[in-house]
Amino acid sequence: MERVVGVLKGVRGRTFDTVYDLFFTDKRIVAAILTHPSDFNDINRKIDLGRILIGGSPGEWAVKKRSLDLIESRRSAFADKTVDEILAMHSSNMEIDYENISCVSVEKGLVKKSLKLALKNPPGVKVSFSLEKSQIAKAEELVKKVLPEKAK
User: Fold this and answer.
1) With bands split at pLDDT 50, 70 and 90, how would you rate the model's confidence at 87?
2) What's 151's DSSP letter?
3) Which residues touch 139 (CB under 8 Å, ≥6 apart)?
4) pTM score > 0.90 for this model?
5) Separation CA 97–CA 99 (nearest Å)
6) What is the CATH number for 119?
7) Structural domain count of the chain
């Protein structure tokens, strides 16, 4: 049975409003959505005169509140699930098999910090997750555990 080695919580995906928990197993990484832009379509569609005039809006508070609620409820739902069940929970969840990774690095720049995965197939494709400074040590630890020979 597939075993979870560790979880890197709250990394950002392609856009700042896509947030994942990354499950590192003994075979693959599963990126499980916590928040996705589609979770806020009903809020973001509304035109808010207050936002236009003064730069803030109740809609922004609604997005923040919903984000926190979604993160809590989705993490709770992950608790008793297998990795395959977690993968199936959201259409934007994804998996990356370790065999398909040619190189992995944890970037520690002044402005941008990230976990970068270079894939074998399709060739030349790189997957990147933005990290907070506080997540770097955990990311490095997990990469050393599961992909030491591919770490850069």
Assistant:
1) very high
2) B
3) 8, 106, 115, 131
4) no
5) 5
6) 2.30.29.30
7) 1
Q: What is the pLDDT of residues 124-139, one digit of tens each?
A: 999 999 999 999 999 9
- Give me the domain span that covers residue 20: 4-150
What is the full DSSP assignment across 108-144?
E-SS-EEEEEEETTTTT-EEEEE--GGGHHHHHHHHH
Residues 40-75 pLDDT 10s: 766 655 545 454 444 555 667 777 788 889 999 999
| Rounded Cα gap, residues 49 and 56, in angstroms | 10
Q: Please give the C-alpha separations between residue 32 and each of 83, 107, 118, 130, in angstroms, as whole numbers.
A: 9, 21, 19, 15
Q: How many residues does the chain have?
A: 152
Residue with tokens 């693959």: 28
Average pLDDT over residues 72-85: 95
Do you find a cis peptide bond into 122, omega within 30 degrees of 0?
yes
- Which residue bears the tokens 């990394």? 11
DSSP 3-state helix, strand, coil percentages of the chain (rounded to 5)? 40, 30, 30
